[in-house]
Structure formats: structure tokens, C-alpha cells
Amino acid sequence: MNKPHNSKILGLTTLAFAGTGLLGTAQAATTVEINGQQLRTSVPPIQMNNRTLVPMRDIFQALGATVKWHQANQDITAKRGNTNIWLQIGNRVAMVNGQRQTLGQAPMMYRGNTMVPLRFVSEALGANVKWHNAVQLVSIDTNGTYNGGSGQQVAGVRSITVPAGAVVPVTLDEDLSSATANRGDVFTATVKSETTGDSEFPQGTKLQGVVSDVVRIDNDRAGALDLTFNSIVLPDGARYNVRGSLTAMDNDNVSHPSSGRIMAKPTTGKKDNTKTILYGAGAGFLIGKVLLKQNSVLSAALGALGGYLYGKRNDNDTKFADVNVKRGTELGVRLDSQVVYADNYGYANQRTPYLSLR
Questions:
Q1: What are the backbone angles phi and psi of residue 52, rounded to the nearest 5°?
Q2: Taking Cα atoms as reference points, which of 161, 204, 193, 59 lies closest to residue 117?
Q3: Residue 164, Cβ density class (10 Å: 0-12 exposed, 13-18 middle, ≥19 buried)
């Protein structure tokens, strides 16, 4: 990297990185306050690409986090409570609790100090950040309820929150069959979207799933598949960990608003673990539920003649068959955990009109 050279212009220090095309201004007048008390820093905060950067140790320690610098990879790890943050010099990708975030300005070296984006660090640790342009003041509030301290807010980029219990229609990208699938097989499905904004995620988003259990057809039961979903991949390649499970899309299992958000209906039964599975019927499949007792497996739960299986039934239920789900088949995925992802597409503006009609 070319070394920066400094020049004084109207009281501002201009940092020009030759050959990089990166220009920014470092304003010594910028003040940072945390809960009304001025943050003392080893070097003054700087402004780069309209982002405020501060020395990493000063801000992390002031917010009650432990921080480590790794010289070999020039990366930073910080931890407070259940929140873990990873940053790297020159890298606009950061990680918060294993979830990828995109920064408006990458961390950088300045006067021998490792400088990190103030807003990102503060919001990732659950604080509220406000910029007061008239007095060049950044105020940080750690005492409020902003974001519940979840460490999920994205700095410099709007974020979109999809609540637990939301149901996402998807279409399979490949065939699945209980005759050939094996436990642990990975597959993908594409989020179904007919009009921009009508889905929880942008068009082209993929959900990655895994075959968590499979039962082969035999003399007294049909084949069955248990599917779970563990990650979401946005069109730009950003990946977010999720916990998702299969759900039927009928009125017994989900609420169908005229527009907006599809939500799973609450399940009953605290002691028994109700699972939605695919089981063989005719030349295709049906969606049903099975009760998995403690420490039981799918094959045992199904029992002879599928005795524990219930749900919508028809004459095909008596005909034992393998599960055969073709590519392009629509399924429902219930999100069992909240998902917060960076809105690098301006998708919130397209999504909001649908949600406002709920």
C-alpha cells in the first residue's frame, strides 16, 4: 500500500493515498461522546468516505469489550458478552456472530494506530449512534434499548429484519428422492418471488438445506425425508446462518395475508417434538407431521403403516411409495430464528409497501 501524505487545508488534514483513488478528510474537531462523557482517544477521530473512524482499543474498551490484534493477518477480534466481532485492515467485510456484514469504510492504519468504523462497532455492540453535524459530534448511547443489544445492526447500510416464524416459499433447485438421498446431503432452493418486494429476500436468494433424515420404503411403511435449512445466500454472495424447517403452506399451518408476510401458526404440544416431513404417496409425495418422542428417530416414529403420521390424508396414503420431489417444486420454509441481513440492494424500499398493507 502506498503511504499517505498529509497537507493542511482550511484546518482539515487531507489524506491522499496515491495510486488508490481513495481520498478522505480527517477532522480533528470531531468529538465522540459515550453516554454524555467525551471519549478520549490516542489520536483524534478521522473522517473517511463520510465515516468516522477511531482507534480500535479506545472504542472497544470504552464499550466494555475485549479486543485482540493479530499482526499476521492484520485482523481484529473483539468480544463482549455473547457478541463476537471480526474485522480486518482494508477489508469491507466484517463478521458479527458469524454473520457477514458489509462496511461503508474498511478499517485502516493511521499514524501507527488501527482505526475502525465507529458506528459499526458501536451498533454491533448494541449501542445507539447519532451524528450531530452542526457541532461535529458523534453521540453514543449504551443505556437505551436500541436493537436489544443483539449485535445485528449493520453500520453504514440499512438492514432488514425477518422475524422468527416467518414462512418463505421456495422452489427446489434439484430433484430429491428417499430412494437415493442420504443423511447429510446438501441441496439448495430458490426464494420464490413474482414481483420485486413480495418476498422476505431479494430475487435470486438461495436457501441451503440438508437432508437431516431419510427413511427407505419397505413392506410396512412409505419412504420419508426430513429436511432442514441452515443458511441463506443473497444474490451478492453474502451468506447468513439460519435455522429453518419445512412447513406445509395450507391454512392449518400458515396465515395467508392478502399481501405482506406469511407467518407460521403456533404449534401445540410442549413435550413432543412435532416435525413436518415429506413422505411417499403415489408417484410423488405428501407433506405430513410426525411426533418424535424424546431420543427417537424418524424411522421409529413412523412405525408400522405410518401409524404416527398425521395431517391431510387421502387414498394414496395407503400405497407405500418413495418420496419423489421434482426440481421446481414449491415448498414452504419456516424460519425458526430471526434473520437480519444487510440491505445492499435498496430492497427495504421495495419491500416496505407490501408489509405496510398487512
A1: -90, 130
A2: 59
A3: middle
Half-sphere exposure of 334 (CA within 13 A, CB side): 20
Give the three cell numbers for residue 301: 416414529
Instruction: Encode 317-349: b = buried (16+ Cβ within 10 Å), e = exposed.
Output: beebbbbbbeeebebbbbbeeebbbbbebebee
- Render pLDDT for 202-254 as a digit per residue (tens, 0 to 9): 999 999 999 988 888 877 677 888 899 998 988 877 788 888 999 988 888 88
Average pLDDT value for residue range 288-298: 64
pLDDT in tens, 116-125: 999 999 988 8
How many residues does this entry show for the chain? 358
CA distance 340 to 163: 9
Neighbours of 284 (CB within 10 A): 15
Q: What pTM did the predictor assign?
A: 0.54
Q: Please report, in angstroms and rounded to a whole number, the separation of the first and last CA atoms in the chain.
A: 51
Q: What is the four-CA torsion angle of 248, 253, 259, 261, rounded to 10 degrees?
A: -90
Element (H, E) at 163: none
- Angstrom distance (rounded) from CA 321 to CA 218: 9
Classified as helix, coil or strand, 347 is: helix
Domains of the chain in start order, with CATH, are 5-150 (3.30.457.10), 162-355 (2.40.128.260)
- Residue 112 DSSP SS3: coil
**Grid cell of 177 as nine digits:** 428422492
Q: Which residues contact 256 (CB under 8 A, 6 or more apart)?
A: 262
Q: How many Cβ atoms from other residues are within 10 Å of residue 187's Cβ?
A: 19
Report, as an integer, the average pLDDT of 67-73: 92
Cell of 71: 499482526
